[in-house]
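Lab notebook: predicted structure, single chain.

Context: the supervisor wants predicted structures on file for every construct in the current expression panel, including those that have not yet been purified. This is the next one on the list. No modifications to the sequence; it matches the entry in the shared construct table.
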Amino acid sequence: MTHDLVTTLRPLLSAEASAEAHASGAEPGDLEQAVWLRLLEHLEADGPPRDPHGWLRSAVRSEARRTRRTTRFERPYDREPADEPDRDPAQLALAAARHRALREAVRRLPGRCPRLLEALLSPKDLTYREIAGELGISQGSLGPERSRCLGCLRRLLAPEVATREPRG
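Prediction complete. Output recorded below exactly as produced.
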């Protein structure tokens, strides 16, 4: 039953995710994987949707909206605040504590997330091809996997980090 549903929905999901991805700022593969996860959760909780095609279209739009909302608040720093050239010892200690906390949180992540994020944080500056080879996964699944791992990391750190204003 589940296999038939996946086989039936795969082309529609691919098309819907491709159509919504650009406007949401997400990769189509990221949207697809998020919707597959939602479908698995739905199947476990409520069984198959009554209107699978309608449910799928709605789920893709919902994930795209969620991605847009999340992206709106995620702004990268121009540089790490602790990278100021005239840092005092207190700033150095705070930066070291932040890095330790990040590494400890990464180690608490599920599955292969710790290995993936450690590879991404590596001072060797590994390419996606090298990381994929090291982890034994396809290079194409690295981006979606990275997104899931970073989402897990955000949820893990949320209670530990004070709420901040949007960066940028």
